[in-house]
UniProtKB/TrEMBL annotation:
Boundaries of every K+ potassium transporter C-terminal domain copy: 344-589
Keyword set includes Transmembrane helix: yes
Organismal lineage: Eukaryota, Viridiplantae, Streptophyta, Embryophyta, Tracheophyta
Organism per entry: Trapa incisa
PANTHER family given in the database record: OSMOTIC STRESS POTASSIUM TRANSPORTER, POTASSIUM TRANSPORTER 12-RELATED
Protein name in the entry: Potassium transporter
The entry's keywords: Ion transport, Membrane, Potassium, Potassium transport, Transmembrane, Transmembrane helix, Transport
Family membership: Belongs to the HAK/KUP transporter (TC 2.A.72.3) family.
Coiled-coil features, chain-numbered ranges: none
Length: 591
C-alpha cells in the first residue's frame, strides 16, 4: 500500500524516522525556542483543512451535508450491525485530540480555548471530514489514502509540508506532556530519579529529561519501522486516548465526591452520561487489540510496574529512616563528646530528612575513631523558583545544647541554579550563614531575657480630633512614648494616629558594648572548626526484605527496587556534593 501516488511505503517510513530523529534532537533546546512558530503553522494547517474540505464538498457531492442529521447514526448501525461496531473503534480517532486542548489550561484561559475550539478547530475539522466523505462518494477506492488523495494535485506538496509540521507540533505537545508527567511523578515519589533540565527561567513547567527523551525516540523509531502502517498506529493511539478519557472521568467523579462535595445526584449523573459513552468506545477499540492496540497496554503495564515498585520501596525506606532515626535523648546521654573524640573540623552529613538525626550518623560514630567538633546535618531541597538569594539559601536550627555544636540545615536551591558548585564556595556560604544564625540567636535570647512588662492601663491614649493643633495632637503621644518607649508615626487618613510601640528592654546593648561571651565562644569554636577543614559525609541507605517475608515482597524489594536504585540518578549527583574530602557510609534497613 502506498501513501499516495508520489511516495512508497518505504520512503514514507524513512522520512518519518528522519523527522522523528530531528524532533527529539531539538528537545534539549526547550519548547520556548521554537514555540513562536506554532501559532502560524497551526493557523495555516486549519485553514488548509477547511478550504480543501469546502472545495471537495462543492466539487464532488454537496449532499454530504445531510450527515449532520443524527438519525443517520441509527441507520448506519441498523444496516451494518457488527461491522458498524468495529468501525466505531476507528471513528474514535475523529474525536481524539479535542480533549488535548484543555491540557493547555496552564497557558491559556478557558474562554480562549473555548473560542478557539468553537470558531476554528471544530468548523475546520467538520469541513475536512465532510469533504473527504464527498470525495469518497465519487472515488471509494481511495479510502486507504483518503487524506492526500482528496488534496488537489497542485497543492499536494505544500499541504504535505504543512501536515508534517503540524504533526511535529502535536508530537511536541505530547513529548512536553510526558516530561511534565514524569517530573510530577518524581516529585510524588512514584518514579525513579532522573536528571531534569529546566529550559526556561520564566516557566517552571518547561523541562527536558534526557533519559525519557531518548527512550521515547528509540521506541517511536522502532514502532514506525516495525508497523509501517498508519492503521496499527492509529489503533494503538485510539485505545490510549479512550483509556485516558475513562480514567479522567473516574478521577473527576472522585474529585466531585470528596473534594468539591457536589450534590450526590450530579455525582451519579456525571459518570453515567460521560462514562457510558466512553465505555462504549472503549469496548469498540478493545476489538482492535490484535491490530496494534496491544502496544499501549504493554507500555502501560510496564510503567505501572516500575512506578509501583519504586513507590513501594521508597515508602519502606522512608518509614525505616524515620523509625530508626536517633533520638535527642540518646545524644544527651552520650554527652557533648558523643561518646568519642571531637577533633577540630566541620562535618557536613547529607540526608533526606528535614527533621531529626538520621540513623546513619550512628554508623559514623561507630566507624570513625573521632568526629568533628561541629556537625551540620544538611538536607538539600529544590524550590519552585528560578533562583534563591544567597542570604535566604540556608535555614538553620540547633539540634542539641550549645556545647554539642550540632545543627540542622536546609539548603534551598532554585530550579535554574547550577548544580555544580565549587566546594570552597559552598562551605564558605554555609559557614557564613551559620555565623549569622548564631548572632541572631544570641540577639533573640538577649531580647527575650531583658523584656519588661509595660502597664498599658496606666497610659491614657486620648481620642484625636484632626481639627486640634499639631502640638496638642502630639502631647499625649509624647507622654505615652516617655512611659513605654513608643514612637510616633504619621496620622492616618481617617483622623486617628498610628502608634508603633517599641520593644523596651533593660540594659540594651550599646554599639560600643562587648559581645556576649557565649556568642564569642561559639564563634571562635566555629572559626577553629573551619580552620580544621570540612568533610562531606554521604549516607547510602538501602532496604532488604526480611527472611520471613513473602516471596513477592522479596522479589520486589531485593531485586526490582534494588535494580532501579542502582540505575537511577544518584542522590548525591542531584545535590552536587563536592567530591573533595568525602566519606561514605552505608546502612541496610530490614523491612
Amino acid at each position: 500500500m502506498t501513501l499516495c501516488k508520489y511516495l512508497s511505503t518505504d520512503a514514507v517510513v524513512i522520512i518519518a524516522i528522519i523527522i522523528l530523529l530531528g524532533l527529539f534532537s531539538i528537545q534539549q533546546f526547550g519548547t520556548g525556542k521554537v514555540s513562536f512558530l506554532f501559532a502560524p503553522i497551526l493557523a495555516l494547517w486549519f485553514f488548509s483543512l477547511g478550504s480543501i474540505g469546502l472545495y471537495n464538498l462543492i466539487t464532488h457531492d454537496i449532499s454530504v451535508l445531510r450527515a449532520v442529521n443524527p438519525a443517520y447514526i441509527y441507520y448506519f448501525f441498523r444496516r451494518n450491525s457488527s461491522s458498524a461496531w468495529s468501525s466505531l473503534g476507528g471513528c474514535v480517532l475523529c474525536i481524539t485530540g479535542a480533549e488535548a486542548m484543555f491540557a493547555d489550561l496552564g497557558h491559556f484561559s478557558v474562554r480562549a480555548i473555548q473560542v478557539a475550539f468553537s470558531c476554528v478547530v471544530f468548523p475546520c475539522l467538520l469541513l475536512a471530514y465532510m469533504g473527504q466523505a464527498a470525495y469518497l462518494v465519487k472515488s471509494p477506492e481511495s479510502a486507504p489514502r483518503i487524506f492526500y488523495d482528496s488534496v488537489p494535485g497542485a497543492l499536494f506538496w505544500p499541504v504535505f509540508v504543512i501536515a508534517t509540521l503540524a504533526a511535529m507540533i502535536a508530537s511536541q505537545g505530547m513529548i512536553s506532556a510526558t516530561f511534565s508527567c514524569v517530573k510530577q511523578s518524581m516529585a510524588l515519589g512514584c518514579f525513579p530519579r532522573l536528571k531534569i533540565v529546566h529550559t526556561s527561567e520564566r516557566y517552571m513547567g518547561q523541562v527536558y529529561i534526557p533519559a525519557v527523551n531518548w527512550f521515547l525516540m528509540l521506541m517511536c523509531v522502532l514502532i514506525v519501522a516495525i508497523f509501517q502502517s498508519t492503521d496499527d498506529i492509529a489503533n494503538a493511539y485510539g485505545i490510549a486516548e479512550v483509556g485516558v478519557m475513562v480514567v479522567t472521568t473516574a478521577l473527576v467523579t472522585l474529585v466531585m465526591l470528596l473534594i468539591w462535595q457536589t450534590n450526590l445526584f450530579l455525582v451519579i449523573c456525571f459518570p453515567l452520561i460521560f462514562g457510558s459513552v466512553e465505555l462504549m468506545y472503549l469496548c469498540a477499540v478493545l476489538s482492535k487489540i490484535k491490530q496494534g492496540a496491544w502496544l499501549p497496554l504493554v507500555f502501560t503495564s510496564f510503567f505501572l510496574c516500575v512506578m509501583y515498585t519504586w513507590n513501594y520501596g521508597s515508602v519502606l525506606k522512608f518509614r525505616s529512616e524515620v523509625r530508626e532515626k536517633i533520638s535527642k535523648d540518646f545524644l544527651l546521654e552520650l554527652g557533648s563528646t558523643l561518646g568519642t573524640v571531637r577533633v577540630p573540623g566541620i562535618g557536613l552529613l547529607y540526608s533526606e530528612l528535614v527533621h531529626g538525626i538520621p540513623s546513619i550518623f550512628g554508623q559514623f560514630l561507630l566507624s570513625l575513631p573521632a568526629v568533628h567538633s561541629t556537625i551540620v546535618f544538611v538536607c538539600i531541597k529544590y524550590v519552585p523558583v528560578p533562583a534563591v538569594p544567597q542570604d535566604e539559601r540556608f535555614i538553620f536550627r540547633r539540634v542539641c545544647p550549645k556545647d554539642y555544636h550540632m545543627f540542622q540545615c536546609v539548603a534551598r536551591y532554585g530550579y535554574k541554579e547550577p548544580r555544580k558548585e565549587d566546594s570552597s564556595t559552598f562551605e564558605q556560604l554555609l559557614v557564613q550563614s551559620l555565623e549569622v544564625f548564631l548572632r541572631r540567636e544570641a540577639e533573640d535570647i538577649a531580647l527575650e531575657g531583658n523584656l519588661i512588662d509595660v502597664d498599658l492601663d496606666s497610659v491614657s491614649v486620648l481620642s484625636v480630633d484632626r481639627r486640634r493643633p499639631d502640638n496638642d495632637l502630639r502631647t499625649p503621644l509624647i507622654q505615652w512614648r516617655q512611659q513605654c518607649g513608643g514612637s510616633v508615626t504619621s496620622a492616618s487618613e481617617e483622623g486617628g494616629i498610628m502608634v508603633q510601640p517599641l520593644i523596651t528592654t533593660i540594659g540594651l546593648l550599646e554599639e560600643e558594648e562587648e559581645e556576649d561571651p557565649e556568642l564569642e565562644y561559639e564563634l571562635s569554636a566555629l572559626r577553629e572548626a573551619m580552620d580544621g577543614g570540612c568533610t562531606h559525609l554521604l549516607a547510602h541507605g538501602d532496604v532488604r526484605a526480611r527472611k520471613d517475608s513473602w516471596f513477592f515482597k522479596k522479589l520486589v524489594v531485593n531485586y526490582f527496587y534494588a535494580f532501579l536504585r542502582r540505575n537511577c540518578d544518584a542522590w548525591e549527583a542531584n545535590v552536587s556534593v563536592p567530591h573533595a574530602n568525602t566519606l561514605q557510609a552505608g546502612i541496610t534497613y530490614m523491612v
